[in-house]
Write a structure and sequence with these properties.
heterodimer, A: mainly alpha, two-stranded antiparallel ribbon, B: mainly alpha, two-stranded antiparallel sheet, globular
């Protein structure tokens, strides 16, 4: 019953219109995005604004995964915060250990006076290679285990959304409960170094921004390849008619699993890069509410369109900062309204407006010719 | 022995609260396939109604009695309004109802914050419900909190009333007809739009009743809905969507499980373990405890 199909734009509509130089269009868009991210933004924005942009770009990375899993595969994951958090905590644990110096435990553990040495499950994260790999592989592993259980038994639609949401709630509650080893409600705060670089230095903050921008572009390119591959077609087919795909001899569970795991890995990477950009990771950033907020941007921009989802995520995150600085109450109303309007009246998001306008104009033009 | 019985009672009372919260959802989600995330805020509306009534009516006992029907009407009206404004446009897109109603819930939370302030407020329970009732006396006494017993009674009454209404009244017959075959119901002369709205009114009204009950066990605040809604959805999903019987059993089983696990571990670990149990259960029965038999391939 996941009938977003009739409303979501079909694959055909999303492919660029055929022309002689049509194949250049994505490359041109990509180049424009690269210029904007690497040349225009660092020159035009202050260090503070650039830092904010780095944060928004992390949200956009999650949106790439949401576009893949939800927009393309029809899997509404309301628990992306879990994977974002796994990546974030893996990175933050390594940075905290590195900040503390050899033989020392992170500051919050000293504060509670409970630990004089690292808990066993912290120890592997002292190794930078392990920690970096874990930021992506840990979320992917969790998604693979959960996904293979859930999809094989054909738990889907609302059931899946609610389960993923419950997972986010349980994870956040668990983190809060383990105060002595996870920092509890405060989370892991006050992160100072990033692999030997001092994060207080604006030059190093810029470097973090460039890393984030590069990773985002890489993920977009990767997702584009996936979407335009045979697998991408299969994913849309599973969304629109799972049974028919099954009768054709494919296993829809595996198709969904790949999208779910890919989205989890992207969210983990986003969480990992969020930590040096913002200097904190805490349960408040990964529970139910932030998990749904990660979906908003993609929904408003256009869940099925990569460009729409990414730009939507950045725009909504930006609007949040701009509005909530001045009117914290008004932002919540605006956020709710944005969600209602985007989903009830414009299910394809703002990206679908482009298609609607283009089709209007095309039909207008052909009528003009006929007359 | 009394420790075990005491824990069992705690579990049953957690289950009763869960059941009251999930009951209205079972109608709107189960019968109508609408995932209403704003249900938690309808619960909040019921709780704040109790708070307002207690401010204006002297006597905690009287205000609680008055609050039950008034909260039902207030939350029910909110639900009917929501159905009319938004949900009737979205009946074929259940996942979108989830996100749209989440937007509504955000706005309602902020509205509550603007009207009643961000800090939690508290109501005073009537004297009858503040004490304990001793079940087994002697050296090793077993006592039940009377407010918990009241909630248990309320939950049982609500379940009985709802199932009788669905089974015996003309409205109940129409709701079941629409659920089973919307098109056939429509050609038989049933106004499906009106049935939808009435069912939504009742389901949301039950959230109001749950809100009144929650004022007896905890504080009232703008985020109280978010805290309970996930548990309620899990009850419905595990019980089987649209299955009142399933919701009742699962609410009590989860309540007891939660209470036993909390007793032997910590609250946060218990939450995680309950979730693991639910995922494991869905491996065994993906459609929940009770399912509607259909010929559909899904």
């Amino acid at each position: 019953m996941t009938t977003i199909a009739p409303h979501a734009p079909s694959v055909k509509q999303l492919q660029p219109s055929k022309g002689r130089l049509a194949f250049l269009r994505p490359a041109a868009g990509f180049a424009a995005a690269a210029v904007a991210l690497f040349a225009v933004a660092p020159l035009a924005l202050s260090d503070f604004r650039l830092g904010l942009l780095a944060k928004y770009l992390c949200t956009a990375m999650v949106a790439v995964g949401i576009c893949l899993a939800w927009g393309r595969g029809g899997l509404l994951i309301l628990g992306q915060g879990v994977f974002f958090g796994l990546g974030g905590y893996a990175m933050a644990m390594h940075l905290k250990i590195a900040d503390a110096g050899p033989g020392q435990v992170p500051d919050f553990m000293q504060l509670y006076g409970t630990a004089t040495e690292l808990p066993w499950w912290w120890r592997p994260f002292a190794n930078p290679v392990f920690a970096l790999a874990a930021t992506v592989l840990l979320p992917m592993a969790v998604a693979a285990i959960l996904g293979s259980f859930v999809f094989r038994r054909r738990v889907k639609g609302a059931y899946f959304a609610i389960l993923s949401q419950a997972l986010a709630a349980a994870f956040a509650i668990w983190l809060v409960g383990q105060q002595a080893t996870t920092g509890g409600t405060n989370g892991l705060t006050d992160i100072q170094g990033f692999f030997g670089y001092d994060l207080d230095d604006p030059v190093n903050q810029r470097m973090v921004y460039f890393v984030i921008a590069a990773v985002l572009l890489l993920l977009i390119a990767l997702a584009r390849q996936l979407i335009h591959s045979r697998y991408g077609e299969l994913l849309v087919a599973v969304r629109d008619s799972e049974e028919r795909v099954r009768f054709l001899g494919y296993n829809p569970a595996n198709v969904k699993l790949v999208a779910y795991v890919a989205a989890a890995g992207m969210a983990g990477l986003a969480g990992a890069l969020f930590v040096p950009a913002v200097g904190i990771i805490s349960p408040a950033l990964i529970g139910i509410v932030p998990s749904i907020e990660l979906v908003i941007g993609a929904a408003v921009g256009g869940r099925a369109s990569l460009v729409g989802a990414v730009l939507g995520a950045i725009a909504v995150a930006w609007a949040r900062t701009a509005l909530s600085e001045e009117f914290p109450a008004a932002w919540t109303y605006f956020q709710g309204l944005l969600f209602i309007v985007a989903l009830a009246f414009l299910p394809g998001g703002l990206a679908s407006l482009v298609g609607i306008v283009r089709r209007r104009r095309a039909s207008g033009a052909s009528e003009g010719e006929a007359a | 022995m009394t420790v075990i019985l005491g824990q069992m009672f705690t579990g049953v009372s957690i289950g009763a609260v869960l059941l009251l919260i999930a009951l209205g959802l079972s109608l709107t989600f189960g019968q109508m396939n609408v995932i209403n995330m704003a249900h938690g805020e309808f619960i909040m509306a019921g709780a704040y109604t109790t708070y307002v009534l207690q401010k204006s009516i002297a006597g905690a006992g009287l205000s609680l009695i008055v609050a039950l029907p008034v909260a039902f009407l207030v939350s029910g009206a909110l639900g009917a309004l929501l159905e009319w404004l938004l949900i009737r446009r979205l009946y074929l897109r259940p996942l979108d109802t989830l996100l749209v109603t989440w937007g509504v819930s955000l706005m309602l939370q902020q509205l509550a914050r603007d009207i009643f302030g961000a800090p939690n407020v508290q109501t005073r329970a009537p004297d009858v419900l503040t004490g304990n009732i001793t079940v087994i006396g002697g050296d090793d006494p077993l006592t039940f909190a009377s407010s918990r017993l009241f909630i248990l009674g309320l939950a049982v009454a609500a379940v009985v009333a709802l199932s009788l209404a669905l089974r015996l009244t003309p409205l109940g017959r129409r709701i079941r007809a629409v659920v089973q075959n919307r098109d056939l119901a429509e050609v038989s002369g049933i106004s499906t739009g009106r049935v939808d709205r009435t069912a939504f009114f009742i389901g949301s009204g039950l959230a109001g009743i749950a809100g009144v009950a929650l004022t007896l066990v905890g504080p009232i605040g703008p985020t109280m809905g978010t805290n309970v809604i996930i548990d309620a959805f899990l009850v419905i999903v595990v019980g089987g969507i649209g299955q009142l019987k399933g919701s009742v059993i699962v609410a009590f089983v989860l309540g007891v499980l939660q209470s036993v696990l909390e007793y032997s571990t910590t609250v946060s670990v218990a939450k995680v373990l309950v979730l693991v149990a639910i995922v494991a259960f869905l491996q065994w029965r993906p459609q929940g405890l009770y399912t509607v038999r259909t010929r559909s391939l899904v």
